[in-house]
Amino acid sequence: MLRKSSWILLIIGIVFSSCDSNQVFDEYKSVPNQWHKDSLISFDVTAPDSLNSYNLFVNLRNNNDYKYNNLFLIVEMNYPNGKIVTDTLEYVMAAPDGTLLGTGFTDVKENKLWYRGHNTPFLFNENGAYKINIQHAMRENGKVEGIENLEGITDIGFRIEQSNTN
């Protein structure tokens, strides 16, 4: 009996020590085999509070089918009172030798990409529900038309963390 309770305590200890204390919101949505240029990935977030500051991230998982060195995203934040802020963002996804960046031991890499808070921590200054829409804005060099279906992105996530400057 003592041995069984020791195992249970060990498992509980591991679970609690692996919890991320800075995490306020963290959600992923799967992308089908290809991410269509008109497909929006949306997240509904309730403002945690208007007093503390936060860091916001776009998280994504990609595999070896992703064949570009960078990634362009359009991220739109819809505020509760109707204000909309749209940003076009560029992220480096591969080293100069073509090796995909990110963490992971298999061909799937996970990337935590800054959205807001890297220069000045973000404040949720309106109470209520925020909606974040993310879509890709990839184009091939010398072409005006966007890439219709982007391959290699498997999941898109959005994460909010408490800022260390609170």
Give a brief outline of the structure:
The chain has 166 residues and is mainly beta. The chain has one helix spanning 2-17; strands spanning 23-30, 34-36, 41-46, 53-62, 70-78, 84-92, 109-116, 122-123, 129-136, 149-151, 153-162.
Named at the architecture level, the CATH assignment is Sandwich
Q: Provide the helix percentage.
A: under 10%
Query: Kindly, what is the distance between the CA atoms of the first and last residues, rounded to a whole number of angstroms?
Result: 46 Å
Query: So how many helices?
Result: 1
Order of helices and strands: HEEEEEEEEEEE
Cα-based radius of gyration, to the nearest Å: 19 Å
Instruction: Count structural domains.
Output: 1
Which structural class fits the helix and strand makeup? mainly beta
- Indicate the overall shape: globular
CATH fold descriptor: Jelly Rolls
Multimeric state: single chain
Q: Report the β-strand fraction as a percent range.
A: over 45%
Low-pLDDT sequence parts: 9-18
Biggest sheet: strands, sense, closure? 5 strands, antiparallel
CATH class assignment: Mainly Beta
For the secondary structure, the number of strands is: 11
Q: What is the residue-mean pLDDT, rounded to a whole number? A: 87
Fill in the keyword field for this structure.
166 residues; mainly beta; Jelly Rolls; 5-stranded antiparallel sheet; 46% strand; globular
Written description of the protein model:
The protein has 166 residues and is mainly beta. It has a single domain, classed as Sandwich (Jelly Rolls). The protein has one helix at 2-17, and strands at residues 23-30, 34-36, 41-46, 53-62, 70-78, 84-92, 109-116, 122-123, 129-136, 149-151, 153-162.
